[in-house]
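testing teh design pipeline on a random one, pls ignore if ur not involved
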């Protein structure tokens, strides 16, 4: 089937197998490997992307469901001049990662959360990220990173 979508501001048009998952399309066909495949069951959130501005687990959608969609991956958050998005910067500055495998999905979920709730409490951050799993950090620094990003003047 033919699919057309915009990923990170770039339009794409490709022929795909009807059963191809969006995460497989993003990684395999577009070469955007920052979106990770973790559990293949939508439990871990490492494949989270913004789909029309909303965070979704890209392993739960078929590529053909992306027809006409605007999708942002972790690679699309940074500015063209290389400056990091405030959430990316906050994760780096607050050590919101350890092994880094969950980080792209965690960052994308945090961006979506802050778009919906620009000034969350720590509890709201924890609830907002509960669909994304980290096996290393214990979440403390991740929550601190999201709260720091929320305080950032650059977040808008």
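output:
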């Amino acid at each position: 089937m033919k699919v057309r979508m915009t990923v990170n501001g770039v339009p794409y048009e490709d022929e795909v197998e009807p059963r191809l998952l969006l995460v497989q399309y993003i990684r395999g066909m577009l070469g955007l490997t920052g979106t990770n495949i973790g559990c293949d069951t939508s439990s871990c959130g490492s494949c989270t992307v913004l789909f029309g501005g909303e965070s979704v687990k890209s392993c739960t959608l078929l590529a053909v469901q992306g027809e006409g969609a605007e999708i942002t991956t972790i690679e699309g958050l940074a500015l063209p001049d290389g400056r990091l998005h405030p959430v990316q910067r906050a994760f780096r500055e607050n050590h919101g990662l350890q092994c880094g495998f969950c980080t792209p999905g965690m960052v994308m979920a945090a961006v979506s959360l802050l778009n919906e709730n620009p000034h969350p409490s720590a509890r709201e951050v924890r609830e907002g990220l509960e669909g994304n799993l980290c096996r290393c950090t214990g979440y403390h620094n991740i929550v601190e990173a999201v709260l720091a990003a929320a305080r950032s003047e650059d977040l808008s």
